[in-house]
Amino acid sequence: MYADRTINTTLEKPRWVERWLSVFRDSCNVRLACHAAGIDRRDVYHYRDADPEFAQAWRDAEEDATDLLEAEARTRARKTSDVLLIFLLKAHRPEKFRDVSRIEHLIGKMNGEQLDQFIAERLAAVTAGGEAGAGLAALTAGDAAEESTE
User: Fold this and answer.
1) SS3 annotation, 29-43
2) How many domains does the chain have?
3) Which of 13, 19, 86, 140 could join 37 in a cystine, given CB atoms 3.0 to 4.6 angstroms apart?
């Protein structure tokens, strides 16, 4: 039984719920879960809106699916993918591996002309397909020289 908030009544729990949640938990894909449960996707969205207990089960299943994806990303990162490894480090150690931390610090020290130059260099590097951090490296070197003279 569930309380349907959309029509203020209590209804039987649909038979497809457990199958849908099981497939969704493994795939995090609404379409695949609906196909496996033999229902239309509109039905599952209506049921989620109508039943808070199912809505919570949906969120829990989505978290489980995301945990599986993260575990797979870790496995691939260790074996073959530097890019995945970088993303995982950024996600779990943002204070150390986040790109923006140093940029925010530098931008706060820039005057208008330096900021314009920095943006222009970054855009040129990205457009040319070159190293996007080239302007940042030059500014960082300038910062280091400036700090050593203070």
Assistant:
1) CHHHHHHHHCCCHHH
2) 2
3) 19
Residue-wise pLDDT for 80-101, tens only, equals: 888 888 888 888 888 777 776 4
Q: Measured between alpha carbons, how far is 117 from 114 in angstroms, rounded to an integer?
A: 5
Task: Tell me: do 105 and 57 sit in the same domain.
Answer: no
pLDDT of res. 16:
96
Residue 140 has pLDDT above 60, yes or no: no
- Residue 56 in tokens: 């919570």
Residue 77 domain flag: no
Cβ burial, residue 50 (10 Å; 0-12/13-18/19+): middle
Domain match, 6 and 63 both: yes
Domain that holds residue 28: 2-69
Residue 9, SS3? strand
What's the pTM? 0.55
132: which 2 tokens?
A: 């996007």
Same-domain check for residues 11 and 62: yes
Tell me the three state secondary structure of residue 147. Answer: helix
